[in-house]
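Give me the fold.
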Amino acid sequence: AVIRTRQTLVGDGQSNDFRCSVVNFKTGATTGWHTHDCDQLLVVTAGKGFVATESEQREITVGDVVHIPAGERHCHDATASSTLSHITVTTVGSTSKH
């Protein structure tokens, strides 16, 4: 079953600087632990979830903006009782590793 969907807002080739997508999580869905080789911004647009690093976990909800520095191992998840949607912004050409 699909647990996350992605809608591209600004795709590769549309900006010299960044990429931007909306990511929708089903209840309880997670990205799994990963890193990016650029900073990442998350803007929560619906639901509730968590962002975790190796040293902390915080709840996120509509209107929250999260900055994840390049190289920081993290995950973002919907809660067990809520879906989650967020806008993600990364730089053009950046990659992520699970």
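The chain has no helices and nine strands.
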